[in-house]
Amino acid sequence: MSVATILKEKGTEVATAPVETTLAEIARTLHQRRIGAVVITGPGGTIEGIVSERDIVSGVAKDGPQVLGQPAGEVMTRDVHTCDPGDSIYEIMNVMTEHRIRHLPVVVDGKMQGIVSIGDVVKQRIAEVEFEFNEMKRYIGG
Rounded CA gap, 53 and 36, in Å? Predict the structure, then answer.
């Protein structure tokens, strides 16, 4: 299974915001859309960073609630790991585990094509295991 398979099922929509968006606005977006991260983009849609729930919680723990009035650029993770539609779910699981991240924007030729979360990967892996199980059952019983 590949990242392309996940995107085909979930779609390619990505929540984005410019660097000057406040963390309070990002938190509202996360809550309203029931997502875990917003990609921070610059001119032309370039990825400047990513703000996850973890980034917001860390900011509040470090600087108090006033951090919510700060722009995303102050707290965002700047070193954004990305993936390619051809990457396997095993490759991206490894990246997510190694770097302790839960979201990977999907990039092709410098353009964002979607985003994959750890939840998407787990869902796909469960579907894969269930398919294999049913095929084995059919083979043994057949």
Answer: 6
